[in-house]
Design a protein that fits this description.
The complex is a heterodimer. Chain A is mainly α. Chain A is built from 22 helices and no strands. In chain A, helix 2 packs parallel to helix 5, helix 3 runs antiparallel to helix 7 and helix 18 crosses helix 19. Chain B is of the alpha/beta class. Chain B is built from eight helices and ten strands. Classes of the chains: A mainly alpha, B alpha/beta. Chains A and B meet through helix 1, helix 4 and helix 10 of A and helix 3 and helix 4 of B.
């Protein structure tokens, strides 16, 4: 009997050669150019945001005191993500045929999977090192110490985080950790790191943060962190052969679709596929069964969907709300830029909440068979998510209260409009859909088309951002001596108007589009010679 | 089609004249399902649940060497779940499956079980012939020992002229034929097949019946999920599933097998 691993090796070599031979070099170089351009723009933006004034002695003390724990919390979050991903079959994603033919053949599965895993690790380490090195350089702008040391420390941190993510996932996958165990372990790790940040219990993840600050102070004990991460990764690689084919097959199919959806900027499809990848699927039975009383069809349809949200999705929405509250409170206290992450968090929570509306938008031809105008139906479908977002608004207030207790009245007033604006941005994003091939953009010069795409991508986030602005507006008003609640009220009213504008857009956009098309056609007809 | 592949030693199939399967496993067909040991395929207390949804209730199954079994059941009855667990693609929620005395999914079981899924997948960049080569060699066939078998399979299935084409570009029926060829080009003790007749034309169905007869004649056990009467009439034993539970396990003779799940 021939050695099947020889066949495996030969085929992989032949396919690699064929792929290399068919590589479109122009396309590859263009992609590298795009990635580099985006990287430079992001770096310049972050750089300008950070400023370049050296920290004062007090600020430096604060960085040394709390910096390691903050980075430790990020490390814990990354490890938690890895554990959760591994319990769902991550991080590997292969071709479906590879699962069907190679992994069902009597070959050494570990050996068959090792190449995939090493490629993924190599890429992760590269991205981590580059991102970390850039972050190190940015840190060098304000922190004392030679640039090279910050560059190396940043790169080391990036590598440790990448390996932490992938190693934890490989280990969890190899150990076939059950999802609830992985979730518990993830929560425990994050809670421990958070406790360290609050000063109550030293956490091992803090040594990673301490490692990142080596240009300020070298602590040799910090080397334990990279050693532990490498050990976990090696253990994960050793257990590769134990990976679950069931999870791998599901993941393999979804990751391929997910990459394609990202390529065509189809956010809705990305969300749906990501949920499937995370096994975040509707409950078989609703949390509460609706009685037969309500006669409002769209309202009932909305709640039928919302009451099937799995616990993990509800938990995520509340967590995003709390994080947005924290960020808004920080913005109120002076860090204006934090309205951006607050808006992003509420946008993501909104994407979850508007699921009943999204389901309708996913099938634009379905309304043709319904005896109700599409805009009217879409407007009615907004009602249930709007009510369902009230607990998320409460989480925003809760998150705000953790950081600031001086303006809880403002928090209570601004929370719901902010959450609705997040959902409004999500509705705009899903309603616009992915850019259509063959649309008017094809007629535009590349520069104009790029600008249009940028506006199209940014617009939903701008809607979400408008909801978080009361935190900043109130701070400026309070600086002039007004109470925060009074100072923020006009901005809250404006946020509510934005929400109404989004609802109006859903209601009348079909009619407006039809009117616009007709106007263009009439113009073209009048221009034609008789 | 280039001349570098061997010519098939038998012509494309003409539907007619296939002999029914010999009822060699008739004694085994009446064997109680709870039997342990000696089977080429055994399931003990096999369960699959997705949260609250039970796809397969605790199931015991014993299939002896050379036995041919048809698996019937309505949509969602658990047929595909059972077959995928036998092949090692699904993790059982409880119980165990043994194939040739090896736990499902282990290297020994993978060598013994050939699984033909109802949704074939292929590499984007491999031709039919390259797929055959790869699968045959992954299952330990010598580089020069599989080619005549592959050519014969393609000839029988009417795919010989398409051997150098990419199966990802094929129609549903041609993909199914390619998948069948891949399932038969490798050695196996148990053939596990999910709805193999769907999408096949008359010649393809007859060719598949031939191949199943041949495998059975060689002593391989068959577990085939299908409602195709032409196959049902050839086998000696039927297992019927409803809502994840076995509602019938016994001889096919004298019963309306399809009616069991209607």
């Amino acid at each position: 009997m021939a050695d099947p691993t020889v066949a495996l090796r030969e085929l992989h070599r032949a396919r690699r050669k064929a792929r290399f031979a068919h590589l479109d070099w122009f396309e590859a170089v263009y992609r590298v150019y795009l990635a580099a351009a985006v990287g430079v723009v992001v770096t310049l933006f972050v750089s300008s945001w950070l400023g370049d004034a050296p920290l004062t002695a007090a600020q430096l003390d604060e960085v040394q005191a709390h910096g390691p724990a903050v980075v430790g919390l990020v490390t814990a979050a990354v490890a938690a993500l890895g554990l959760r991903s591994g319990s769902r079959g991550g991080p590997l994603a292969m071709e479906p045929a590879e699962v069907r033919y190679v992994l069902l053949a009597p070959v050494d599965r570990r050996r068959a999977l090792l190449g995939h895993a090493l490629r993924q690790l190599r890429f992760g380490v590269f991205v981590g090192a580059v991102t970390g090195a850039v972050a190190g350089q940015l840190a060098h702008q304000r922190l004392p110490g030679p640039a090279l040391q910050w560059l190396v420390a940043g790169a080391a941190l990036g590598v440790v985080l990448s390996l932490g993510l992938l190693g934890a996932a490989l280990l969890a996958s190899g150990l076939r950790l059950r999802r609830w165990i992985a979730t518990l372990a993830a929560l425990a790790i994050v809670a421990w790191a958070a406790a360290d940040l609050l000063g109550s219990l030293p956490a091992p993840t803090t040594t990673v943060g301490s490692l990142a600050l080596w240009p300020l102070e070298v602590v040799w004990l910090d080397l334990v962190a990279p050693v532990a991460v490498v050990a976990a990764t090696l253990a994960g690689l050793a257990l590769l052969g134990r990976v679950s084919l069931e999870l791998l097959e599901v993941r393999t199919a979804l990751v391929g679709q997910l990459r394609f959806a990202v390529t065509v900027q189809d956010l809705r499809t990305v969300i749906v596929l990501r949920r499937q990848l995370a096994l975040d699927t509707p409950r078989l039975r609703p949390w509460v069964t609706l009685g037969p009383r309500s006669r409002h069809t769209a309202w009932r349809r909305g709640w039928h969907g919302l009451l099937r949200f799995p616990a993990v999705r509800l938990g995520r929405m509340l967590t995003l709300g709390a994080l947005a509250g924290l960020a808004m409170a920080a913005a109120f206290r002076g860090s204006s830029a934090l309205v951006a992450p607050a808006a992003a968090a509420l946008f993501l929570a909104g994407l979850d909440a508007i699921e009943p509306l999204s389901q309708e938008l996913d099938h634009p031809d379905r309304h043709e068979t319904l005896p109700v105008e599409r805009g009217l139906l879409l407007t009615r479908l907004v009602a249930a998510p709007a009510v369902a977002l009230v607990p998320v608004a409460a989480a925003v207030v809760g998150g705000w209260a953790v950081l600031d207790r001086t303006a809880l009245g403002l928090a209570a007033l601004a929370a719901l409009p902010a959450v609705w604006c997040g959902a409004g941005g999500a509705a705009v994003s899903v309603g616009m859909g992915a850019p259509k091939a063959g649309g008017t953009q094809q007629l535009l010069p590349p520069e104009a088309a790029g600008f249009t795409i940028a506006i199209r991508t940014a617009w939903p986030l701008v809607v979400a951002l408008l909801g978080t602005l009361p935190a900043v507006v109130a701070r400026h008003g309070a600086a002039d001596g007004d109470p925060a609640l009074v100072a923020g009220a006009p901005a809250v009213s404006f946020a509510l108007l934005v929400c109404l504008a989004v609802v109006a857009w859903l209601r009348f956009r079909d009619a407006a589009s039809a009117w616009w098309r007709q106007a263009i056609e009439e113009t073209q007809q009048t221009r034609r010679p008789a | 089609m280039t001349s570098r592949h061997p010519k098939p030693s038998r012509p494309a199939h003409e539907p007619a004249g296939a002999e029914p399967v010999d009822a060699a496993g008739a004694a085994a067909a009446s064997t109680p399902p709870a039997r342990r040991g000696g089977g080429v395929l055994e399931a003990h207390g096999l369960t699959k649940a997705y949260g609250e949804l039970v796809a397969l209730a605790p199931l015991d199954l014993w299939i002896g060497p050379g036995e041919a079994v048809v698996l019937v059941g309505h949509n969602g009855s658990g047929k595909t779940t059972l077959l995928r667990m036998v092949s090692g693609l699904l993790d059982p929620s409880g119980g165990e499956v043994l194939a040739a005395d090896h736990p499902a999914g282990s290297a020994g079981a993978r060598a013994a079980v050939s699984y033909l899924p109802d949704n074939p997948t292929f590499y984007d960049d491999l031709s039919v012939w390259e797929h055959l080569e790869y699968v045959a060699r992954l299952h330990g066939r010598e580089p020069d020992d599989w080619q005549q078998d592959a050519a014969d399979l393609l000839g029988l299935l009417g795919l010989y002229e398409r051997a150098d084409d990419l199966p990802v570009t094929f129609s549903r029926g041609l993909k199914q034929k390619t998948s069948i060829a891949l399932g038969f080009v490798r050695p196996f003790d148990v053939l596990v097949v999910d709805e193999p007749f769907v999408g096949l034309d008359a010649a393809g169905k007859a060719a598949l019946l031939d191949l199943l007869d041949e495998a059975h004649g060689r002593g391989a056990a068959l577990l085939v999920a299908t409602h195709e009467l032409a196959f049902v009439e050839r086998v000696e034993r039927c297992v019927a599933l409803r809502d994840g539970e076995v509602i019938y396990d016994g001889p096919t003779e004298g019963i309306d097998v399809v009616g069991l799940v209607a």
